[in-house]
User: What shape does this take?
Amino acid sequence: MTQVCSLLIIALSVIYFRWCLEMKIVSVKEIFKGVFVVTDELGTERLATRNLVAGVSVYGERLMNFQGVEYREWVPYRSKLAAAIINGLKDIRISEGDRILYLGIASGTTSSHISDIIGPKGIIYGIEFAPRPMRDLVAVAQKRKNIIPLLKDARKPYEYAYIIGESVDGIYADIAQPDQSEIFIRNCRMFVRTNGYGFIAIKARSIDVARPPEKIFEEQKKILESNGFRIEEEIRLDPYAKDHIMFIGRWKP
Amino acid sequence: MWLISTIVGPVILDDNGNVISYKIYGKEKPSLSEVIEGIKKLEKKECPSEFETLIKEQNIDRIKTDSEIIAEILKGTFSKLKIEVVYDGPELTEVRNGVHKFLERLFGTYEKYVEFANATLVEITRDKLREVGEEPDKMIIQAITMIEELTEATNALMAHLREWFGIVFPELGKIIDDHRKFATIVYEIGNPSRLSAESKDREEYVKKLEQILGNKKTVDRILEALETSAPVKITDKDEKELRSVAKLVLDMFNLRDDLETYLQELMEDTCPNLTKLAGPTIGAKLIRKTGGLRQLALKPASTIQVLGAEKALFRALRGKGTPPKHGILFTHPFVFRAPWWQRGKIARTLASKLAIAARVDYFSKEYIGDELWNELLQRVEEIKKKYAKPPPEKMKRPKPRLREKKRK
Assistant: This one.
């Protein structure tokens, strides 16, 4: 009896899963330029971007078709930028054709969506120090021509200054390091144009495991502001990432 | 005057960001192979010829640049050139904007530049990754992980094999504890009725059993147990499947042995001192935990002592519970064979010696393992003598409870 039951459950879940995949998209709403909310038959809303490379899923996210356009789901549990958008980001700032410096690009989950938004006329300089995620990133960069992989240490911007050369419109930092704010500022000084935008995700636990996160966030905010980074928005990323905050602002030295 | 290096080559600009002159690696138009060669030269801190000719042509005596690396390279080639490294300021921003415009003009559209940069750096990064893959610590990390997985898998499989064979001949599992011998018996003999008195080739199989066990007493015990238990009859098909499972497990045991000798050799080649003190398994686990021999060598002894006990350590740092005495080091015989009140002290000594060993292995590659080993032995003896008796137990008082967070 139990065997029959479990078989039935497995069969049903397989059918449900298939059905979910083939779920019809009812509507697509553009919340920011290049960022969409896709609603399916059941009324489930999902964040998505228009897929730059048709038919390719980067990290196992679902692909959805609506009126001949392919959308890629943007999973907030995997990407902190998506979590920030869901938690009430007022303006995405990133627009088509932008040049972006990405510190701590890892295996290219968030950057693949940024790459969707900026399109083939934009560029992402992706800095990553660890070889393991870099392997995955190179595979992503081979398909997405606007991602430039750089196996360098974000602590030492002069080691990649001789490759980048030009200025960038925006900077995105997701480096879990105790001195991440200083690293961020160092890179802003070198590359970001005046009035360029910046995103920095701060993980309280990587700065100090013992102290309360709120105090750490206050401190980091002070470091950023006193160095010329004007914070315009601050968004906690719970429940998608625990004890994380994202500061979004402009570089006005 | 500014000298900025880009993917395609060096560019000289004035303070307002107007391009004065530039050189492209190789030819007039950027080509992939020449550019890759140029950037690789820069990464090796050599001066590409394009930099030399550009500066000579322009006849400059002082220049500003944005990177220490470039400054260092130029100093090596031009001793008289005055170089100023500038990291920030509005002037640099202007110059960088100028570089952007230059790149756009050079390629016609920015899109073409993006594609070119992507192709170049994908190639360079792939080459670099290939070099990283050849490091021996990566091999050590993979080998120890594989050994651990194999141990776990064989244990699970053996538990099921014992259960399964237990239906046929339950006493055997109690007589033989050793997994390997058990699997060999199942594989070589299979159906236990072959050993019974009615069997035609009983002699032959008893001999085989003796060979496997190398001990007459145990063989007699098995035969005795067979007489009293009267084993369940099994078909040839059952026997075939049981034997193939046993064969698989035996193969896995052999593979694990091979991997262990491989790891031992690898560890002795890369870090002889660490291996002498910690043994190949614990040494490899320490390397895996930190991510490489270099990282391990840079860790202080106090960190090495509690590697692998992060959960307890961070719990203690938040003010709940006592700090851990040992992490991975607990599996070292010196530590786990010692009585509980000596373990922390021994772990501390061991960790300090391991830290020295790892540093010597990474930085100088001398062999001082024997000296370190003697020092360690001496210190352990000292601890054992000094703290021969357990400390008096303290009365346990209820701790004052930490104030819980107020919930909104």
